[in-house]
Fold Universal stress protein UspA.
Amino acid sequence: MTGDVIVGLDGSPESRAAARWAAEEARLSGSALRLVHVVEWPGVPEVPLYVLEADEERAGELLRRTAARLATARPDVGISMSVLRGRPPAELSRILNETDGVRLGVLGSRGLGRLTGFLTGSVSAAVAARAAPPVVLVRGPGPGARPEDADAGPQTEAGAVVVGVDVRSETGEVLGFAFREAALHDWALHAVHVWRTPVGYGQAEALDLGLPAELEARLAKELDEAVAPWTRAFPRVPVTADCVTGPTAPRLLAASDGAALVVVGRRHRGPLAGARLGPVAQAVVHHATSPVALVAHD
């Protein structure tokens, strides 16, 4: 596999954990690792140039320290560094979208709607919503952890990839990414489709108690058909597939408890559509305890 793994850094424990996750991804995939920090630059004359220069020097030192730490742990990974000027959402999105052959982007996340450092709140969500390549959000160490524990990264190696599948939408990009990650890390894969009885079926369901089971069987067949080409392409990946009923985000979060990685899709959006995630993707980003991959699809 080729292409850069690009990780956005701000010096927080979450971004340090993201850097470690990204370095392992780069090692396993044979990719180069690129460390990026964006210096917030308002571009107004009231801010003197020496302030920008000092910020850039601090950013460079942050990247050098991170690169040295990662090189010690992963000496076989090629590492480069970039300090950018501008607005973090725009610059991080731009580098992900305009760099040839990007494998994925990686950012640090606190979850529960609070994202850290220059990735605060809407910034990280905006990057994930704008980026063409997949973006992985990585949790930092838990409460009470020491700062250096961030370098150990989240302990997810024993879990599986949990991928949310909408059988009525194009799922190729989402399932393809999930299977590639499972194969790369030697993880199992759990495909989950969440459904509810359509509103118009209410009276029919009351008259025919077998209708929900019939609907579930039909959806389970569609899920198996969606997964089948990927199980053939990745025969070494252990796969389970389940259809569950209820509200989508809570059911997907319940299924992802203890996962190594949660994969959810998001719609490609044009430049005029705005940069935001859908409600299910937002809920998973905010509440999942595992790393979350957001994969754009048509």
